[in-house]
Design a protein that fits this description.
Length: about 475
């Protein structure tokens, strides 16, 4: 699980660089502070749900972005004394936790109660990310200020860990480097987290932070492949490898057994290839419509200049980085204008309205919906309570049959399973990206094991 944290100091100004950062890190969640947005400014990220809180004066502001593959619901906070926060409870690959994006301006009078309310409003475990504008020796500052004392007390009371390694997160000459951005998590999460600073401010004076949360229990033996494993495969060898691997494990809990089988299928398919697999990296689309190799080159040149400044620390090196940063921003603006001109010049009667609206929205960084409350099944139960409140008597004239007489409630048979596979094209319908031909060619013993798992999941309502 990849989490990106950043004080962006104007999301609109640094939007293109940030989209490339999200594209490069392949994050599941991002937490931004000092977005400098107002309620009339809509933003979009193609693969993310957005929850945000803006400040009326156009400064401050916080955002959480959650990849649309993951379910979440927003956690609401009462008005707090100057503390800006958005939070949600998210479930990723079977791992559930609360994540918050926080910004506390330097002028805010912070109290223990303000900090305690953050944890009290969210179900544990917690991942609290943001710019606290606090100086503490525990995260690399030369001395403790009043806020550091409050944060220490918060960590002691709620069993929290500060993930920071002591590395600077804000760089702005001639000011000395500082560590204002904190990543705080529950003790139960701390051993699963790896904390790293990305050495490129991407137009801000704060450095982005990447937090990797391992999830071995839910990621058993998953292999990332971009190659069609059914194209050049020895089907006989594949069946033998699956049979051998299947016999090596007897009894596992259902979900662990399913993960084991899916990993075994991909591993066996890789080993049964008649020719070397050319690569395992997924080709991803560019972060924006107008991004090209020239943009990537300018981005890398700017990043290299900042790393050189961090290594040598001279004023000339920082000015060189600032100059390349301005060149990069101007280049991206020019690419955007050029893409739009070419698109307009290429319009014809055959251009669909869908294409027009899609390109128009992406050019404006806007969507019709400004914010997402949740992406989880919870709303179904809330909706059902409104339609059928508990106070209303239920009258049912539906004739009920004993379960044993209803064929729809009976487990799937091997014949039904085989017919279903025969009717499928060679596509990959799920996140494991296992194509149907790999399932069709499984040995009978593995098919029966997989069918038993499907029936168990159906009986227990497990998705």
């Amino acid at each position: 699980i990849e989490v990106l944290q950043w004080n962006c100091r104007s999301l609109i100004k640094n939007m293109d660089a940030f989209k490339f950062l999200v594209h490069r890190t392949r994050c599941d969640i991002f937490a931004l502070s000092e977005t400098w947005l107002t309620s009339d400014k809509n933003i979009s990220f193609h693969d993310f749900n957005i929850i945000r809180r803006d400040r009326g004066d156009g400064y401050g502001g916080v955002i959480l972005g959650i990849n649309k593959l993951h379910s979440f619901y927003r956690i609401d906070f009462p008005p707090m004394n100057g503390t800006e926060i958005v939070a949600c409870h998210v479930t990723i690959q079977g791992k559930s936790f609360s994540v918050a994006s926080v910004y506390i301006p330097p002028s805010t009078r912070l109290s223990r109660r303000d900090l305690a309310e953050i944890c009290c409003a969210m179900p544990a475990p917690w991942l609290i990310l943001g710019d606290f504008n606090a100086h503490g020796t525990a995260w690399g500052s030369p001395k403790d200020d009043n806020r550091a004392t409050l944060i220490y007390d918060l960590c002691d009371y709620f069993n929290l860990t500060i993930l920071n390694s002591g590395e600077a997160t804000r760089i702005k000459p001639p000011d000395p480097p500082s560590m204002l951005d904190l990543s705080i998590c529950s003790n139960s999460l701390s051993l699963d987290c790896t904390w790293n600073v990305i050495q490129d401010p991407h137009g801000s004076d704060h450095l982005p932070i990447k937090i990797s949360v391992t999830n071995d229990s839910c990621q058993a033996r998953q292999i990332d492949v971009a190659y069609d494993l059914t194209k050049h495969i020895d089907w006989g060898k594949y069946a033998e490898l699956v049979s051998e691997g299947e016999q090596s494990v007897d009894v596992l809990p259902p979900q662990e057994e399913y993960q084991f089988l899916s990993g075994l299928i991909v591993e066996s398919a890789l080993k049964a290839q008649r020719r070397p697999v050319p690569g395992t990296s997924i080709r991803r689309r560019p972060p924006t419509l107008w991004w090209d190799e020239e943009c990537t080159g300018a981005y890398r040149e700017r990043s290299a200049a900042f790393k050189k400044y961090r290594k040598r620390g001279t004023r000339e090196n920082y000015e060189r980085y600032s100059s390349l940063d301005e060149i990069f921003k101007n280049l991206v603006k020019a690419k955007k204008r050029g893409y739009w001109r070419n698109f307009v010049n290429g319009l014809s009667r055959e251009t669909s309205m869908r294409t027009l609206w899609t390109v128009g929205r992406r050019m404006r960084n806007a969507v019709s919906v400004n914010e997402d409350r949740e992406s989880s099944p919870r709303w179904i139960f809330e909706f059902a309570k409104k339609v059928c409140p508990d106070s209303v008597q239920v009258q049912s004239n539906i004739r009920r049959y004993p379960p044993e007489r209803n064929a729809m409630d009976s487990p799937f048979s091997m014949l039904e399973f085989s017919l279903a596979l025969l009717s499928c094209n060679n596509s990959a319908p799920g996140m494991d990206r296992i194509k149907f031909n790999l399932l069709k060619s499984l040995p009978d013993v593995a098919k029966r094991r997989l069918l038993n798992l499907f029936n168990l999941f159906l009986e227990s309502n497990t998705v």
